[in-house]
Batch of 2 targets.
Target 1
Amino acid sequence: MQHIAIVIALAVSVVGVALFVRAVRTIVGVVSLGGPARRNDAPAQRWRNLLVETLGHTRMLQRPLVGAAHWFVFIAFGALFFTLVTAYGQLFEPRFVLPVIGHWLVYAWAAELIAWAGLVAILSLVGVRVAQRGQGRASRFFGSHSGKGVYVELTILGIVLCVLLLRAMEAQLLATGPDPTTRWDFPLTWFLLPAGIGTTALETAIPLVAAAKIVISMAWFVVLGLDTTMGVAWHRFTVWPNVWFKREASGAPALGALPPLRAGGEPVDFDDLDALDEDASLGTGSIEDFTWKGLLDLTSCTECGRCQDACPAWATDKPLSPKLFVMGLRDHAYAKAPWLQTPEDERDALAEPLRLEAARPLVGPNGGGGTGGTGEPDPIVVTGSSVGVIDPDVLWSCTTCGACVQACPVDIEHVDHIVDLRRNQVLMESEFPSSLNGLFKGLETKGNPWNASPRTRMDWAKDLPFPVPVVGGSGEHDVEDLSGVDYLFWVGCAGAYDDRAKLTTRAVAELLHTADVSYAVLGKGETCSGDPARRAGNELVFQQLAAQNTETLRGAGATKVVATCAHCLNTFKNEYPQLGLSMEVVHHTQLLNRLVREGRLTPVPPSAGDGPARTITYHDPCYLGRHNQVYEPPRELLGALPGATVAEMPRNGKESFCCGAGGARMWMEEDLGTRINANRTEEAVATLAAAGAGSAEVPGAIATGCPFCRTMLGDGVDALQGAPAGNVEVLDVAQLLLESVRRGG
Ligand code: SF4
Ligand code: SF4
């Protein structure tokens, strides 16, 4: 019996190691198919990031309980390697202990504590998985390969149970003999088995349990070796390079700026286009257009579904799930790789399924369900190679809100990949939602998405009781350039043309004037920052707009900019430096907060005649919060309004829920699922109602700091008006501040 166990354990070990090594070679081969990506700047900082993120589990701990449980499993996975070595020794000698550390009390305590903690942790994770069963789309595991996840969890459970059982048996066996141990050598396991088990029985049982432990461990390597797309297991190895090579050497998630457009892996700009090869592909049009880091991203997905759970498109029944997007691309990458690795003149001889996989378009109709429904293409519509990997409805549902990137524990860069696919669709295929035609036309011909005349850009300032200096204007208060003023006030297209956003622009102008901050605007010298064009994949229009703006800004001598639009702020701050223009860019809530702190603006409480004070809930704009980490200044400002009560929505800060306007979605029809703005507005209204606001007696306000959010939430409130929205207004933080400051005269 013992001999059979030894043979089985060693055989599984040899097969497991061999298959694992082969699979590592396969994965390296697939990742190597990707184009170049330079990710080795600031190596010391990258090592630091790696240690902090892995040992500290900083990204996992965004969900504290699951993160803590995973940390113990992660530690157990590494630390219990010593118990695996011990098990190999016990196959041949039941009294085997590790040389040097085997009888060390520190090792005994550490091994047993980690095994017990690992047991509790894995049971907790199993509990989390079980609790999500039956929730359908609401489960973050919906569409994941749950069978694989359960197998991994059962493996860990089996291993820690074997470790504890082996330690309990060793406690009795080693207590006899020439150098007897004590209970202190097995502090947390000596009591697990009834006393008095005979030596012969123990000497028989220990090699068998050791063999079981080895078989469970090495069978895991066999399974991994046979399944290179088993991300739930492979991430234990791929997460290390994926974190080290993350986009931002600072350790921040891949948010804020989009990477430059690439052709053949190399960044290109507008001026390079004529020099490109005729067959050069812009953006990502096939799986081999990904960089090697992109393919490593796809390989590293654990299928945990945190991104899916956070995605506003998924939450509103649209076909996009960032998890299924990544899984679909990963499966295609690994299925197509053998074709790519075969010399071109030998590809015709490859098997039919492989040729069909290779011929699949990366973006194309896949039956509607596609990567967003059950995770499987709809069998009624699937017709071989015509089925796309990513359905266009999936691709164009994204708001680029970044919630997926923020939530992902292994630093996958979803937004960059989604926009790269859009770039290829727009620039190479001319395929995009027809509703974007109006946006592109307005941007190309009038420099704004509203298709409005540039001559009316200053209409927002009409009838203001103070002058608004314009750079290059001929009025008494206008300025030649920005050398004599503190800030360029960037009004933005929404701030100039949208009636609700104009109120924000006027409020900021009045507050700056009141605080005696010198500023000037560009007037009709402004053109769109280019954000909607870039996020819609139209890099050419973005480059045209950005080139025009950078020339204007340089000519005006802009060094400090204040913007009310979170998208303009993000573009100037994070993307114009790619074009060689770096400026200090602040959001109006940051500047206004500073002015209040410095006493240059004084909020005043409502008096008896002003009506009741407002209860306010703050909506974090994605491009201000997640993309630029501005969370506190608007909250501090609202907190500084005397008499106002501020109530926090359940989804706030880094976990804030999108309004639905980003990623150029503002300009597209929302005809799939339910409306994102309605979902967010209902949460805001419910928050206010829970705080006793929204009635005639206690007015409620949804405050925000971005004109797009304001429009979306305003439309949401309009749709709800009457019950349950009641007396709720959507206002910019600046308007609320102005209302309070004006009370002081
Ligand atoms: S960026 Fe937002 S909308 Fe797009 S996939 Fe990620 S979570 Fe979903
Ligand atoms: S992409 Fe990241 S968050 Fe989403 S399932 Fe994969 S590992 Fe989890």
Target 2
Amino acid sequence: MINISKPVIGKLEVDYVSKAVESGWVSSQGEYIQLFEKSFADFCDTKYCVLVANGTVALHLALEVLNIKEGDEVILPDLTFVATANVVCMAGATPVLADVRESDWCLDPVDVIKKITPKTKAIIPVHLYGHPAPMDELRSIADQYGIALIEDAAEAHGATYNGKKVGGMSDMGTFSFFGNKIITTGEGGALVTNSFELADRARFLRDHGMSREKRYWYPELGYNYRLTNLQAALGYAQMSRIETLIAQRNQLLIWYKKYITVDKITWNPSLTKIEPVNWMTCLVMNDFTSEERDQLIENLMKEGIDSRPFFYTVSSLPMYQQEPCPVSAKLSASGLNLPTHPGLTEETIRFISETTNKLITQIRQARS
Ligand SMILES: Cc1ncc(COP(=O)(O)O)c(C=O)c1O
């Protein structure tokens, strides 16, 4: 079986985690927390990094820091992982879905403007599958309407937009370190920002909202959203080769493009002045129905190749039921992700690609 994703855990990771275990600092204090926070903030070109338990709570924390609550609206793309919408509900606010663009599969500034109301308090662009959202346009909309901007960069560590790293182009950026992400801590996440006040408030709320002056005194509701020193040890080791891990993922896309030779397909977006990271190799089957796309996934599985359909649109999920967004719906129905992790060799990508070519051709031939 060729997995869709697989973490790369080396000797350094094992050494650092062992050291953390031996130090006795197994919970949320210990040297690896500071080391990882400093190195991840440097990597994102931001002043501050606040490590948290996962990418979902990183987003929720960002909303809490901004005091987003019941009666407020937050705009996010219809095509994203469900957590981006769920956190808005967790904060008691209302998610408002906007469409993505054909060109980059990210939040469409034109549709965002249409969805703004006096209740809109934040916009959450998602750097989907590693491709940065149009941050300049979204920044100027946010500034014009006095709305906060939070980047969901869970899938895009290291991607750049006009030379700027994702995560640092908004009020706060959030990341995931889940096992299938570019670097992993098992479960884990981070909030990055250039604002001392926002980082300080995030640290306060991450730790149950405990007063800094008076231990065990809680002036307001907070959360336990902390990452452990053990997880930070793993993440800090991963940071030592994050650039290599990204380069290896990007190389996979080059090989896939070389060996998948069928027509009527669209690859991961690529726009000028933008350097995405190939978190997941994407293939959109332009002439396929969603049933045919699902058939392809099933047939790949029979050949020992694990693949995934694109995310279902948020508007199609039972708890969100909203007007469907046409571009999101089309991509969601026809896209799939192929195996993408640094352990894959050119030979394996060639095998996956040739099998994919064969299965796509078979499905097309079966129509006539
Ligand atoms: C776009 C997006 N946002 C948020 C998350 C949530 O991250 P986590 O799984 O670490 O909670 C993910 C994770 O898969 C994601 O892909």
